[in-house]
Design brief:
Layout (H helix, E strand, L loop, with lengths): L33 E10 L6 E10 L3 E6 L3 E2 L5 E9 L3 E8 L2 E2 L3 E3 L2 E4 L2 E3 L2 E8 L2 E9 L5 E10 L2 E13 L3 E3 H4 L1 E7 L3 H12 L6 H16 L4 H18 E2 L3 E2 L17 H11 L11 H4 L2 H20 L12 H9 L5 H13 L8 H18 L2 H15 L11 H16 L5 E8 L2 E4 L13 E20 L9 E5 L11 E8 L6 E6 L4 E5 L2 E3 L1 E5 L5 E8 L8 E9 L2 E7 L3 E3 L4
Parallel strand pairs: 4-13
Antiparallel strand pairs: 1-2, 3-5, 5-11, 6-7, 6-10, 6-12, 8-11, 9-10, 12-13, 14-21, 15-21, 16-21, 17-18, 19-20, 19-21, 22-23, 23-28, 24-27, 24-29, 25-26, 25-28, 29-30, 29-31
Helix pairs in contact: 2-3, 2-12, 3-4, 3-5, 3-12, 4-7, 5-7, 8-9, 8-10, 9-10, 10-11, 10-12
């Protein structure tokens, strides 16, 4: 089997010992030929004593080939890459491919004695890299041992990821694989897996304004009430509440960011602060018995954090003059909160939800807001429980599920929180997902069981004869930065000119926008010659929050030479709350002398 897993961390976890202080842990190593550091930190039960120990582990094979590939490269750029080969016997056969096509290369420290055949205990293979899947095949001609190494180089600025999406099928419906470009299908018996993916992706969202922090808290509580990992969720909740407290301005509301992040004088945000306040108020209704959960009842610190979050929400809502339960219905979120709070406006809320979904009324140009509205309105129809509304609600579920990204969430925390509400309502509706499903292939039909994976053969279509079924599908999602328009004026430059750059130099990436709008992010993808150093590693793709500022300065390290033509890279500005609002400085170039 080809070696494809080259993770930097083989295992990381907490290990509980027995009464003698001993424990065993087993795990599967990644596929890399490398030297591992094994670090153990032991803490006494009292927490007052600790010690550590370090060991090394060398992982090798009698014969192996190991790539050193760049993460991304722009098509057409000429950049060198290497493949290291080691053979105990000193005679080996070697071939190199990109996307299945043989690639020419030069080889050092070994002698070619026949086509594809070499003599030497080790070799350094040099070749020009391009985007695609790279494959090296090497065989010891004495022992016949064989190794296959596979690596991938992404196209800079155009990213592909596998998205796990789902669809609800009803009696008489057929799902065609070709038209949906599906890689793999699975029939699921419940919504637990996609719901957990959605909550986890929202919890792991890397930016933290007041709305996003509150969204992470709401997702963590939703996951906790659904039986998620209590230890992990506890940490998320406690850290989230501590950050939200820094943005809470008693009597005023919530600041967009904590004051120390560069926003200057702390001022309450009258739009996103209001939404964050609503999220925090809703924590008490996300799950019927939040404070009755064993994980909460047995943990005073967690209970205190949750009550503090709700109190912050109620305090901020009072400052914004927001009723805890809506007294009028202005949008889908009001309609949803009205149903959750058993308000007197429930009939008005139901009428609003029906009107929005059935007339396809779209009052917003912003896709994030539209998806959020759709999610909340469909949740209202499901909670109302009227059979005449079920078709509209399930159609909306499918439309939104088709928008899920590779992490399992929607574009923003705003629409992702709406999707959490919708999927919670769908679970509570108790729809039976054990319909009679059949696979259709070459005129044949066979019954399928839940959790069956269609990975061994290609199925042309599946059909549902009766009931309702949940189908998970894996598809390819593509994000192409070259298609982003330049709505937001942005200037991107390096602090040093290309002609003066040398390997090892530190250079600043400077990004400037004319004016700040809440939600602005700088997203960067670097070529082989540039890296951002974080945690001892070279980061090639990252995003940075402007946090109320109009200028960002990000230190980069020059990590390699380029050809005289240089290497291309991209940086774009996106608004995390508005999918359509982008800033695009175009294709950038860096040249490193040598």
């Amino acid at each position: 089997m080809p070696r494809t897993d080259f993770a930097d961390v083989a295992y990381c976890g907490i290990v509980r010992t027995d009464e003698l202080g001993k424990a065993e842990v087993s795990f599967k190593l990644p596929d890399a030929i490398t030297s591992y550091n094994i670090e153990a930190f032991a803490l006494s039960q009292s927490g007052k004593e600790w010690c550590s120990v370090k060991q090394h582990l060398e992982v090798s094979l009698p014969i192996w080939a190991e790539f050193k590939l760049p993460k991304f490269i722009y098509p057409g750029d000429k950049s060198p890459a290497t493949l290291y080969v080691k053979c105990t016997s000193g005679q080996f056969w070697l071939r190199l491919f990109c996307n299945g096509v043989p690639i020419e290369f030069s080889l050092l420290d070994a002698e070619q004695i026949a086509p594809c055949t070499y003599q030497g205990n080790q070799a350094k293979v040099i070749f020009e890299v391009q985007p695609g899947e790279w494959r090296a095949e090497v065989q010891d001609l004495v022992t016949q041992d064989y190794d296959v190494c596979v690596g991938t180089v992404g196209e800079l600025g155009k990213f592909q990821e596998v998205a796990q999406r789902f669809q609800l099928l009803r009696a008489g419906e057929t799902f065609d694989l070709r038209s949906h470009q599906v890689l793999e299908l699975r029939v699921l018996s419940c919504l637990e897996k996609p719901f957990n993916l959605l909550c986890d992706a929202t919890i792991n969202y890397e930016h933290h304004c007041c709305e996003q922090t509150a969204a992470k808290l709401l997702a963590a509580v939703a996951s906790l009430t659904a039986g998620g990992n209590a230890a992990k969720l506890r940490d998320v909740i406690i850290a989230g509440v501590a950050r939200e407290q820094k943005m809470y301005l008693p009597g005023k509301g919530l600041a967009l960011y904590p004051p120390q992040t560069g926003t200057g004088n702390a001022q309450a945000d009258n739009y996103w602060g209001r939404i964050a306040a609503q999220y925090l108020c809703d924590l008490s209704t996300t799950g019927e018995s939040l404070f009755g959960l064993a994980a909460v009842k047995s943990d005073r610190e967690l209970e205190f954090a949750l009550r503090s979050a709700i109190a912050i929400g109620e305090g901020a809502a009072a400052a914004y003059h927001l009723p805890i339960i809506p007294t009028q219905i202005a949008n889908g979120r009001d309609a949803y909160r009205s149903f959750m709070g058993l308000a007197s406006t429930r009939n008005e809320a139901l009428l609003y939800a029906r009107s929005y979904l059935k007339t396809k009324k779209r009052t917003h140009q912003n896709n994030v807001i539209n998806r959020s509205e759709q999610a909340y309105c469909a949740a209202v129809l499901l909670m109302a429980g009227e059979n005449c509304d079920l078709r509209w609600a399930l159609n909306t579920v499918n439309q939104l599920a088709n928008c899920l990204n590779g992490s399992g969430s929607l574009y923003s925390t705003v629409d992702s929180v709406g999707m959490i509400a919708l999927m919670s309502a769908l679970q509570a509706a108790g729809i039976n997902l054990n319909g009679t499903v059949y696979a259709l292939q070459e005129g044949e039909m066979r019954a399928l069981e839940s959790e069956e994976v269609f990975s061994t053969q290609k199925i042309e279509a599946i059909a549902l004869l009766e009931g309702t079924a949940l189908v998970e599908m894996k598809t390819i999602a593509i994000e192409d930065w070259s298609t982003f328009v330049a709505d937001i004026p942005v200037k991107i430059q390096l602090s040093k000119t290309n002609s003066s750059l040398q390997p090892g130099d530190t250079v600043e990436l400077i990004a400037e926008v004319e004016s700040y709008e809440p939600g602005l992010l700088l997203q960067v993808c670097l070529p082989p010659a540039l890296s951002r150093l974080e945690g001892g590693g070279e980061v090639k793709r990252f995003s940075v929050d402007f946090c109320g500022q109009t200028t960002l300065k990000i230190p980069l390290r020059v990590s390699g030479y380029t050809s005289p033509a240089g290497e291309h890279w991209r940086a774009v500005v996106r608004n995390m709350f508005n999918e359509e609002e982008t800033g695009n400085s175009g294709l950038l170039r860096v040249q490193v002398g040598g």
